[in-house]
Specification:
Distance between the termini: 19 Å
Order of helices and strands: HEHHEHEEHHEEHHHHEEHEHE
Structural class: alpha/beta
Helix content: 40-55%
Largest sheet: 4 strands, parallel
Amino acid sequence: MHAVEQHKMKVENIQVKLLQPGDAEKIISNRTSAGGALSALLGATGNSKDYDSYLKKLGAANERDDIFAVSSYAAITDLDHADMAYEWLFNGINDYKKLVISSDTDYHIQREMVEGTLTEDQIQVSNELSALFPNYVNSLKLTESNGTPLTLNKNGNGTFKEYVKSFVMDSAQKALDSGTNLSSLTWITIKDGKVTDLDFDQYIQYVGRMKTPSAFDGLDLTNAENELFGTSTTKAQHFTQYGLENSTVSSTLADASVIKMLNPLYFGTKGTTTSSYWRIRQGTVDNDTSLAVSTLLSAKLENSGFNVDFSMPWDQSHGGDYDLDELFDWTDSIVASSKASSSSNGKKLANTSNNGKGSNVNKNAKSS
C-alpha cells in the first residue's frame, strides 16, 4: 500500500511536469502465492482507514491507495480459515509429500520433498478442522450465478463441493480440447469428446496431500504464517481459535484487527474502495493450499458485483505467470472496458448537464 501511494504520486507528478504517458488510475497488482495474497489485499482494502497508523509510521505519501485491478495466482490467503479449508479437501488422505526448506551455516537454501504418513494425533486434528469448514462456508451465504446457494452439509458435501468440481471439469475440458490425452485418468468420464463427470474424491487422491495438519496455524508455532502475526516482542502467534485452544506450546492469539487486516475476504467495510476487476488463478494440482480458498474469494467478489475472471489451469501446480499472453490480453480487455465505461458515463453526464440536472458519475472502482 505504501508503494501504491508513492507510485500514484510519482506518476501524477510525471504527468504534470513532463507530460509523459502513464496512468496512476490503472495500477494492476500481479503476484503469486503469498504475493498473490498481497495482491488480493491491495485490491480488497483500497483506502481503508484500518491501515492508516501503520502507513503513517512508514512515511507513506498522503495519497489514495486503491488500485485498478488484481491478478492473483495461487494466493495463500484467508488464513484464519485456511486450515479447515485444507483439511476439508484432503481429509482422509493420510500419506503426504512435504516440502522441507532448510539452510546451513553458510545460508545455502536446501529444498527436499519428505514423504510420510499422518500420525493418529494429526488425523484427529484433520478430522476436527474438516468438521469446522461447513459452518464457515454456510455463514458466507454465497450463491452461484444462477442463484443456487453454495452450502455444505455436516459431512462436507453439497453444492459448494459441486461448484469447486465444476471448475476442475471446465479445466479438464479445455485441456481435452487443446489435445491433452486424459485417457489414463480413470476418474474423469469423457463421452463424445465432452467431460461429463469427475470423481472428486479420486481426483483429490491424484493431487495428493502436501501439508500436515494444521497446515498454516502450526500448533507448535513453527509455521511461517505464525511468524507473520508476530510482534516486536513475540516471534510467533496463533491466528485461529482452534490453534490457540490446541496449542502444544505456550502461546497467544494475534489481535483480531490484525487478523482481519490480512484477509481480503473481509472486503466491503465502510470507506474502502475495492478493485472492480479481478483475475484469479489456482492450478488443479496445487496442494499448497485448498482450492476452496480461491473459489470462495472469487464467489464472494462475484456475488458483490465485481468483474471476476476465475479458473483452475489444468495440471498446474503452485506457481504463477505461466500464461502471460492470456494475462496481457485480459489487461488490455479491462482497460478497454474501463475506457468504454468512462466514455459512456461522460456522455450521460453531458446529457444530464444539458438538461440542467445533476448527476453522479459511476466509477470503475466500487466504494462501500
